Each structure stands twice: as structure tokens, then as C-alpha cells.
Model the fold of this input.
Amino acid sequence: MMAEAKKTTMRVRLWTAMCIVVPALLAIVTLVSCETRETLGKSCTLYIYLCGSDLEAKYGLAGANIDELLEAKVPDEVSIILETGGSSVWHSHDIDPGKIQRYEVCDRELVLVEEDSLQNMGDSDTLTDFLTWGSENYPAERNMLVLWDHGGKSAEEICYDEAFSYDALDRKELAKAFARANLPFKFDLVMLDACYMAAVENAALLDDYADYLIASQEVIPSGGLDYQLIAHEFAYLDDEELGRAICDAYLEKCQQIERGELVELSLMDLSRTDDMLSALDDLCAALADVHEDGSGARGITNAAKYSSIYGTKAAANLFDLSSFLHATEYFDNDIDNGAVAKALEGFVPHRIAGSAAETVGVSLYYPISYDKSELRKYLATCPLEHYDDLLDEIYGTKPAKTIAFADRGSISEEGDFSVSLTEDSLPYLSSVTYTLDRKDPESGSFVALGTGCGLAYDPATLTYTSTFDGRWPSYAGMPLYTTVTQMLPHAVSYASPICVDGTDYEILSVYKFDEDYGDGSYAQSYVWGGYDKHGIPSRDYYLLDPGDSVQVYAAADEEGESLVVQDAYVIPDDLTDKEATQTKDCVLPDGTYRYQFEFTDIFGDIKRSDPVLLEIEDGEVRMLEVAHA
Done:
């Protein structure tokens, strides 16, 4: 156990070092070429609200970004001020976790300016005080603000204070903080260095307080933004040029540490926010008008689910606006969404993306994973009047029955297992998957292998037919306990619990079948820290390496608990990077299995078909009998 802990610590140290060294090396090249440049000749203040939380306590990531600031050649015109708090432990710079402290970066040193008793950084008053103090003591012609920490699900919260039960700033509190600060200026740029925050709702909130917004739709890999570049370039580049440079530097930083596929960052021109919101709300009004027959609910829900990327956003209840536009065809082909598409072009002047290049870089809340209290909270602050109406029409009244079977399960003469729904089920159908269980030959009980989604659908008869071929997502030949997290037109994503060097993670596997992947294959699989008990997404992403000790959780009991762990597998040194990080489909062992369709409605309720028993022998699947209820 000591060896496992030592290796985990070493991984964190190496990861932190790479976050510091790589951008530093990149920035040296930039700074050398910039020595003869002229600044814009304007005074600048960079505000950083640094809520360390467990990102600092566990990994020292806030301190690593401070190190980047101290490596920067900061022009005389730039003042950099920080407020630290929110973490139970600070690993560097003698920062006191028992106090709120304010610092200034001076001549590549972090200088303590003042401190006070511990305050909750998830409280609006704490942010207001910092903004007011900064504007009074560091007045400038140009101003930039960073909110640093975790972002929460639905892009609703940011800055979770570890010392105050992970209390965070929600949108109402952010709006209150800015309003009460009553600053004599608008920020040139606000950066939300936190996961999931590139939501149109956050742009609407910040419209009155900033000219530009930088945020990500996705998880921010641990290294965060390139603070060395930010500190130096602030004085040289105007707002939009600076925003573009920050996005590009972030992509380069992530590519250098093999996180390029995960990266996504958008620059939003908040002067275009009103146009964006107006066009979007007009579209929502048109959709609400044609929603009377209920057909739109399934369309928009499917579009929302299909827009998720990397398998994490479905749980975050966010979807890309491009998919919202595609959803309009489910309502009425005559609806014109051109105004929204045009508004988006001006609203997002620049973005960078890894494998999510087809998205537009701005998310919208949608209750993909329905939660009544979360939806009510959102509706209370929704900036789109007619989107509010649309959501209320879809989710305001839950019928007594949403999904009904015409046939709960039968085996055809050809040996195929099929299930049919009634037509009035379709408006409420969100997704169709299946569960697979394996019969233990010794005990005779079934253990769960997880969920899959390979099936065929006949819209003429509303019939779903199994296409299960006996293969299952596996790592190193060991079947993974899988949960389907998204079903895109060109990809399916799975999340599976896995233990690496003694620490529990999820391995995210994406099966792609677009032109780059031929008939279909898996992309590189990333290991991710998942969501914690507070619903906060981890920023801990990395690729498996040779030498890692991996244990696969292969099955669970029928309730999906008590996971069965496989023997440890040490990744051989002679494997290529792709081989070490790739999930593969493998044929399951011979035996008896149980297969069952699951139909999830838009409210998150699941209706199950009758199960069918099947047999796998030498890779061949044979349906045995349907276990009718």
C-alpha cells in the first residue's frame, strides 16, 4: 500500500511539474520574440479569485498556476493581484489555509499585501469584497478577472470552498457579487478556469460586467490555463487578440501533456449576447408553439443526449447549441433556425477544440438526467422567457404512464429477440439501452456486466431488436463493468470503474464508427476521477502508461453494487501508447447470460422488457427463452 501511495504521489508530482515546465518553455520562446514589442500603453490589473479547494489540497494545482505567474516577464503596466482561500492545505508560497489572504505579484515574487480571518469563498460577499478592494487599490484602464476552481454540474456553480462544506457561488450569488461591487468599469475579459462553464446562461449573467468571456464546455485538465502567457500578453494585445491567444496557448499546453483530445475553450463576445439571446428565445417561442402534439420532447431530448462529448456532459445536463439547432427538425421542418446560427457566428469569434470540433463551443442547460429540484432552480434564473415556457410544457406535467409495451419480448423464427412499444410512448422516450448479466456457474445467481446500446429499430413497427454478438468492452482481455454515457450518431461512450495503482478512477471508452475509424474501433481511453460526493467533476484526466498496475471491476450484483475486482494487470513496457490506452471488444466466456431492454423516459424513469436468456458458445450467441413476468 505504501508503494501504491508513493507511485500515486509521484504521478501527481510529475503531472504538476509538466503543467509548470511545458508552458514555461513555450512562453520563453514567446517572450524572447516579444522583448522589442511595444505595449498598448494602458494600465492593466489582473484579478485572480483563487479558491484552492481540493485541487490545491490534493494536487497543489493552484500553487502550480501561481508558479507560472511568477515565471512571467510582467510588463510595468500590469498589476497582478490574487485572493487565496477555499483549501484545507496550501503546498507552496507559505499561503495560510486558515486565512483569507491577498497577494500581489512583484518582480517575480508573491508578496502578501493583507490578510483576514477565514471567509467562505463560495459566498457572494467574499467575492464582492475582493473586487471592491482591487478596484480601489489597483485602478486601471484595462481589467481582467479569473475565477479559479471547480465548476459544477449544469454550469450552475463555481468556486467550492473546502473549508465551508464545499459551498459554492451559484448564478444568483455571482450576479449579487458583481452588482454589489458596483465597479466603475466593465472587465475587459472574464475567464472561468473551471469545468463546464461555457454556458449561454453564464454569458447572460456576465453581459453587464464584462466585454468578453472565456470558458470551456468540457472538463478543464488539471494544468488549467497558461498563466505565464496571460500575465505577459495582457499589456500587448487588445481584448479579442488576447482572448484568441489565451485559447490557443491553452490548446498547446494541453497537447504538450497529451490532453489535446479533451481540450475545449471558447471566446465569447458579450456585446453580442443580446442578439444571441433574442434569436435563441424567438426560436424557443416557435418550438413551444408547435409542441402541442408532444413530438418535440423526444426530439430535443435526443438532440441533447447526442451532443454530449467525452461521456461526461450528459451527467452535467448541458448540450451544445449546435445540437439544439438540429433538434428543431424533430418539431417542424419549416422552423427557421438561421437567425440563431448567424448570431452564433458573431457571439463566438474564436474557439479551440480537440475531438469536439463539430460543436460551436456554447452550451445550454437541458435536463438530460432529469432532476425536479434542479430544473426548478434553473427555471428561476433562466434568461430565456420562451425556453422557460418550452421546458415547462415538456416537464411541467408528468403523465401517469409514459412508456407502454405492445410486446414485452419475444423470439422470432430467425432466433432474434425483439420488443415493441405503443405509439403514444414515443414522445416520452429518451433512450434505449440493454443490460447484460452473466450466470455464475457455481452459485447459479446472475451478476451484472453493465449496459450496452447495440440494437436495431424498425420505425414502421416500433420494434427494437437485439444485435448483441457476444462481444463486450474489455481492457487487456478483461470485461469491463460498463455504463453507456452517450450515444452519438458516430460514437458510443462508456464509463467503467477501474483501479490504477491503488486509486479508483473511471475509464472513459469511446467507440467510433466515422470515416477515420473504418467499420468501428475504440479511440484512446482516458482515466478520469469522476464526480465526487458533492457532484463536482474531477479535473484529473490522464492516459494509462506502461508500468501502471490496473485492476478491472468486471461485474456487480443485480443491484449494480459490490463490484467484482479482477487480479492486477501491469501494463507491459513493450506496448505502444495506443495499445496501453485502448479498450477493445472481446468475446465473452462461454456460458448462460440474461439480456433485457431498458427504455428510459424523459423524466428519468426506466421501463424494462421481459428478459431473455441466451447462451454464448465459441463466440456464437443463441437465444434460449423469454422469462415472461
Observations:
- The radius of gyration is 26 Å.
- The first helix runs from residue 2 to 34.
